[in-house]
Amino acid sequence: MYHEARELLLNVIQQQPEDTEAYNKLGVIMAQQGQYEQAERFFQKALELDPGNSSAVSNIGNVYYETGDLDEAEKYYKAALRIDPDNPLPYNNLAVIYKKKQKIDLFVRYYKKSLNLEHRKELAVKRRGQHDTGRKFGLYRIIMCLAGIILLLVIFTYFK
């Protein structure tokens, strides 16, 4: 599956070398396969083409997080927030770092901010009438989000 996706994205890049999203997605695939140096190169290329790409900045933070450099990951997540302060993902990622560093007050603050932004995002989508799947989808997302939180808390408690 990863191989096919990687090949497809490489073809996109070959045909459209300015496609920042293709570089970013290719970086995600490389990171998921544990190829962190290569992943970071793709994220950096996306940033070279679009310095305001908060997703690529956040993904570089993910690379540092996965390789155990929490301080560097934190810097990139904060940089992503400076670019896009309404994006809930960097807040969530910072919450995870603060939980791991046992900075519970910061964990709670950033986690609440992440949930608040995600909720506002869902409300905005509903107001625009773009919620094809209705209330079940919103409830499903909340349940999945809570399940993810519980899983993270279990993992962090287990590896304490």
Question: What would you note in describing this structure?
Answer:
The chain has helices spanning 2-15, 20-32, 36-49, 54-66, 70-83, 88-100, 104-127, 134-158. The N and C termini lie far apart (34 Å). The protein is globular and about 45 Å long. The model is unreliable at 131-136 (pLDDT under 50). The protein is mainly alpha-helical. It has eight helices and no strands. It has two domains: 1-67, Serine Threonine Protein Phosphatase 5, Tetratricopeptide repeat, CATH 1.25.40; 86-160.
Measured distance between first and last alpha carbons: 34 Å
Largest sheet: none
User: Residue share in helices?
Assistant: over 70%
Overall, the morphology is globular
| Assembly state | single chain
Topology, element by element:
Elements: H1 2-15, H2 20-32, H3 36-49, H4 54-66, H5 70-83, H6 88-100, H7 104-127, H8 134-158
Helix pairs in contact: 1-2, 2-3, 2-4, 3-4, 4-5, 5-6, 6-7
Quick gist of this model?
This protein has 2 domains: 67 residues, Alpha Horseshoe (Serine Threonine Protein Phosphatase 5, Tetratricopeptide repeat); 75 residues.
